[in-house]
Amino acid sequence: MSSSAISDQMDVESSSAFSPAEPVVDGAFVSKHNLSAEAYQGFKECADSLLSGKVAQPEQLAFIQRTLQICENVILNFEDEKQHLMSDVLLVWAMKQQKLSIATLHTQQLHYKELDLINLQFEYFGELLQQTLSGLDYLKQYYPNVGFEEVHSKVRNLTHYFLYYSIIVSRQPPSVIVKCGEAENHRRSRFWFNTEIRILGGSAFGIDTNNENSNVNCYLITDETAKQLLNNAYLDIFESEEFCIEPNTTTFQKKDARGIKAKFDDMKVAKKVQLRRDSVATKRYCLCYNIQLQTNCGIELVGKKVSLPFAVLVGPKADVEAKLFLERSFADLVRHPLSDIPTHVSCAEMADALEMKFQAIVETPQKNTDGPSVVQPRKFNMQTKQHLVMRMKPNQQGFLALDNFMKLAVAEEFQQKKSGASEGEWKLVPFYDWFFKLAEITNKYLYSMWYDGLIYGFCSKEDAENILRCIPRSVLLVRFSDIEYGKVKISVKSRNGEIRHHWYEHADLNARSLNSELLSNHKFSDVDLIYPDIDLEVALGGRNKPRVRLPRNLAPDEIYFDNQGAAT
């Protein structure tokens, strides 16, 4: 597939997760809720007439039959509204939550805020269910054995289903949790994470008032146990043999009008026994939350909620993180828990996932003691997305084989042999390793310049030269090397029009910042701009002016010159 066709496809399909649409009125919900409310109003008028004694005795049987018919219409409308809230609203939100779980905290927080509107929709529907159940309670009491018991049972079952599935894991664990000391790879040495259980709606049934300060327990389970839970929600849970989770209990709290929540803050995974890295790298774990809630209508909500799967590592392992990135980004874990990763995805899907993953690595705190960073992430432009997906060789239909992300060699790294400092060999580097390494370098050495727009980023040598030729003044462009692993390239167009390229390894950037290098190295002294039109001195703080060496005033006497002659 041509690069222009790929670009056109991504223009149509790509919807960056960094700027989600503002919450808008859900027209489908409004329409369905109005139909439910209208049907309920008809039921209410019939119930009021029967319970107030306005219906004469001879007419009661026919009136009851008409009321039962109206009840069936109510149930049909309720089922339709429930299906919309569960499938078109909550399921869609949960599927997007899975994809965004590899993104920045800023992006995840924007998505989390969408639950406020969903909570309101659940409250509206819950009020209709509660009022209908209340009316049916009276009708079956005063008019027994005429059919209201069956209607009440149907509405109660519908309500039970709705309330139970309104309990969600609103904050998921990360895809990879590393349990180790100060990992040599700084970006994977952050151990703590937060999760949360939230109940949407439920106020009409007293879930918030009846369960505030009630306990909820959390267990770390294996994916095998999670599979058993799919078939038996009442399965007795035992913790993983290798690890335990802390804290493992908290309470439901209601702090505002947006539902009741149970927050597990600063969660950590602890080892129970000494483990090898490889022994747990292939395993998947889940968090299992034990739920037991009371309502004011006699329905008890008992069951278990299971998080998305994740890996627990004893030490950093990049290939495992890469596989979990693919799993969270492309597997259908919400509709089909613990399902496999697809073999191919569209270029647009991969481009968006790479964008989110890169920004998440860039924002990761470098030390365990650093707090989380919640900043507006810098977006990839369309050229960057196109460049990245083309490196993974999409097919004619615009789809990428996910094996290419894991296995396709895109760069080379020179590895020295232990026997001699100058001896070594070139090793091929797969796409995921090349991509993750550049994100790490940006996080550790280029953070400020990246967010200030001074790093162009992903770009080939040929594209860089074509871009620079279009700029009339002397200009430089900072890009990531396509071929050499973990290197940053500076492409420069001098005032005479000559184009040259310089490179730096991350060890060089550790010794001196790129900012200082661009200001002080004479190779860049004649450069006016950073691409596209950013004044270099203004952006970086001004060049250090070279010190002019002045002649010393020695004022020598005659003896000085006599000694010069003697010296020769």
TrEMBL record:
GO biological processes: signal transduction
Originating species: Caenorhabditis nigoni
Pfam families named among the record's database cross-references: STATB_N
Subcellular location: Cytoplasm; Nucleus
SUPFAM superfamilies for this protein: p53-like transcription factors, SH2 domain
PANTHER family associated with the record: SIGNAL TRANSDUCER AND ACTIVATOR OF TRANSCRIPTION (PTHR11801)
Domain SH2: 450-527
Swiss-Prot/TrEMBL keywords: Activator, Cytoplasm, DNA-binding, Nucleus, Phosphoprotein, SH2 domain, Transcription, Transcription regulation
One GO MF term attached to the UniProt entry: DNA-binding transcription factor activity
The protein's name: SH2 domain-containing protein
Family: Belongs to the transcription factor STAT family.
Record InterPro entries: p53-like_TF_DNA-bd_sf, SH2, SH2_dom_sf, STAT, STAT_TF_DNA-bd_N, STATB_N
One GO cellular component term: nucleus
